[in-house]
Amino acid sequence: QVQLVESGGGLVQPGGSLTLSCAASGTIFSINAMGWYRQAPGKERELVATITNGGSTNYADSVKGRFTISRDNAKNTVYLQMNSLKPEDTAVYYCNIEGRRYYYSARLSAYWGQGTQVTVSS
Question: Which residues are bridge partners to 7 per DSSP?
Answer without folding.
Answer: 21
